Amino acid sequence: MAPASARLSVEGKNAVTGGVASANAGGHFAPELKYAGFDAVVVRGASPRPVYLAIGDGEASLRPPRTCGEEG
Fold first, then answer.
1. Which residue of 7, 22, 52, 60 has the fewest CB atoms within a 10 Å radius of its CB?
2. Do residues 41 and 33 make contact, with C-beta atoms less than 8 angstroms apart?
3. Do the domain assignments include residue 71?
4. What is the pLDDT along the chain (72 residues), one digit of tens a residue?
C-alpha cells in the first residue's frame, strides 16, 4: 500500500556498440513478478529461435511460441 512502490526497471546493453539504455514503468508486472517469487530477472545471450520467458510459482523457463489454436 505504498504509492509508486510497484515500479519496474529494465536495463539493456547493446552487444555490438556497448551502449546502454534504461526504462522505468509502473503497472501490474512488477508486483506479479515478486508474488511469483522473483526479485529480479537477468537475461544473458541470445536464443537461436524465438522464445518467451514463462515465470510462475518460483520457476522460470524459456518456451517456444505457441501457434493460433494451440492449447497450453
1. 22
2. yes
3. no
4. 677 678 889 999 988 899 999 999 988 888 888 888 888 899 888 889 999 999 888 889 999 998 776 665
Residue span of the structural domain in which 28 resides: 8-63
Residue in the block written with cell 529461435: 49
Is there a contact between 9 and 20 (Cβ–Cβ < 8 Å)?
no
In terms of Cα–Cα distance, which of 63, 45, 43, 67 is closest to 53?
63
Task: Give the 3-state secondary structure of residue 24.
Answer: strand
Q: What's the distance, CA 59 to chain centroid?
A: 13
With cell 505457441, the residue in question is 66
Q: Which three cell numbers stand for residue 69?
A: 489454436
Answer whether residue 2 is part of any domain.
Answer: no
